[in-house]
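The following record pairs a protein chain with its ligand, adenosine-5'-diphosphate.
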Amino acid sequence: MLVPVFNVHSMRLIVFSVLTLLSLSVQSSWYSHSGEAMGTSINITVWHPRESVSRLAVKAVMGEMERVDQLLSPYLESSELSRVNALAYLEPQKVSDDFFNIVQQAKKISYMSQGAFDITFASVGFYYDYRQKQQPTPGELTQLISAINYNHIVLNTKNRSIAFLDARVKIDLGGIAKGYAVDNSIRKLQALGITSASVSAGGDSYLLGDRGGRPWITGVKHPRLQSNQDPSQVVLKLPLSDTAVSTSGDYERFFIDDKTGERVHHIVNPKTGRSASDVMSVTILAPTGAFADPLSTTVFVMGVEKGLKLVNSLPEIDAVIINNQGRVVYSDGLKPQ
Ligand code: ADP
Ligand code: MG
């Protein structure tokens, strides 16, 4: 009978091979995908021992982003948003649970911020076209500014309908939709048994679990990169786990006004109908995207002082702000004790 003989050397070799195989399989269990949805880039990284599950996970996330976009896009005539904007003044509009929940959450953030976040900003916001360098005229602003008021939106919880009290009101959910879609995506991943993942839609992300025993690392972008600088350059890096993170920046969609030299960008101060100018970027850490996303827009509008006061009053919320001088400011929870 042949008895296998192991010496110490061959044992080491076997242990080494098994370890190598294990680490290879661990590495190959990470699966990434990049795509486009909701008018922005979607990046997904998931960990699962079976690639077939990871593929399914990516499909589920992309499907969810598409689904939310079909409901909320201002560019699709068939979206619920377009229907509500066209008809909610004439007659209360029954909407899907998703739509109702998002508008309800948006109103909650409006109360919290005394109107710094207000989805009726769109009553004026629709007059901006950043690609065409267009903005509302002073006449249009005077005529429309009082249409910006979240109290013009009436939510009927019983029959899940939305009505507008003013004929000029329009809403836009661009400041909250991506965070909501990211939250939904994370729930889809969890339902598939995934415990480590990163999902981002533009500047809105959620970091689920960790990255192989270490936290996920998220960078805060440099807000004033020159064209010859590396676009991935960051100002600082945040180690995160089980956290939503959302950045609002004045460098995402903007043009420079030829006459005044002012930066006209996509975050509008509801009080003036003009771009907010106190800061260059706001990054919010929160338990969910449905908070992080609208809060980054909110704090951007409120500016450093009022914004930090709000953030510091909220449990489990933190902020990193880059003010209009390029200085980095932190909320209390991120400062050394
Ligand atoms: P991004 O869309 O680039 O991720 P934000 O999360 O800051 O950036 O959202 C900006 C979007 O929020 C704008 O494109 C617009 O749709 C919407 N928005 C702008 N100003 C306000 C505001 N004051 N209140 C609510 N939503 C706003
Ligand atoms: Mg936002």
